[in-house]
Amino acid sequence: MLLSSKPGAHETPQDNQIGYSDPDARVGRTGRTFGLGYKLHLSIDSKTMLPLSSTFASANQNEKKHSLTLLGKAKQVLASSGSKLRSVIADSQYSNSKIRSAVDKAVIPYPTNQKPGDRNVLRVDKKFRTYGPEDQKAEYHKRPPIEAVNSFLKTQCSMVVNKVRGLTQVATYALFSNTLLGSKQGSSTEHRKSRQSGVTNVLQQLKSGQGSAPV
């Protein structure tokens, strides 16, 4: 499971903390700078890229506050489908003892203020270079799917700039966007399975001397 948080709708500030046209919006970090709006906290399956759980909050709320909620919802979704959560991969903003103790395997970099001087833990620098145990580094490099999902939501669903106001309305819009994403990824997954099945049939027929078959 992959965790991530990305900024949502931005507004023109009335003061340093509250939105002018949207009083629910708040100032929060957006990478190396600050922005006014909201954050979508999202978890997805690393293989299918299907969304497992999500929550929407004002941009000033820390990722750690929502990590256990995301984790709990994701576990329920997986359990309902007969699956089990194997590991959690997230960036350092989610690093805390609660989420690490709630899963069997947590691949989360430690920020510089946690375990300073310890070279046997996973860390990521400002240029996104990874340091630490090789198995942890290999697992952490599975994060690109969550970035692709965030990019889709921003570019195809206008999650960065939208026309609704208020936390409830923006959260509802995010839910519809996640539903669209789930439908898109679900269709893609079934398409891949269909093509894989077709390729397997072709190979089997070629091996048995039956010639070729359409895929």
Q: What are the defining features of this structure?
A:
alpha+beta, disordered C terminus, 5 helices, four-stranded antiparallel sheet, 215 residues, two-stranded parallel ribbon, globular
Task: Explain the overall architecture.
With 215 residues, the chain is α+β, with helices and mostly antiparallel strands. The protein has one domain. Helices cover 39% and strands 18% of the residues. The chain is built from 5 helices and 8 strands; from the N terminus they run ββββαβαβββααα. Strands 1, 2, 3 and 4 form a 4-stranded antiparallel β-sheet that branches. A two-stranded parallel ribbon has the order 5-6. The chain has a two-stranded antiparallel sheet with strand order 7-8. The longest helix is centred in the C-terminal third of the chain and has 41 residues.
Provide the succession of SSEs: EEEEHEHEEEHHH
Number of DSSP E strands? 8
Give a short account of the largest sheet. 4 strands, antiparallel
Number of domains: 1
Q: What is the global morphology?
A: globular
Helical element count?
Answer: 5
| Mean pLDDT across residues | 76
Helix content: 25-40%
**Separation of termini?**
32 Å
Radius of gyration: 20 Å
Poorly predicted ranges:
9-14, 189-215
Q: Which structural category do the helix and sheet elements fall into? A: alpha+beta
Helix and strand arrangement:
Layout: E1 2-7, E2 26-30, E3 33-44, E4 51-58, H1 63-80, E5 88-89, H2 97-101, E6 106-107, E7 123-124, E8 130-131, H3 134-140, H4 144-156, H5 167-207
Parallel strand pairs: 5-6
Antiparallel strand pairs: 1-3, 2-3, 3-4, 7-8
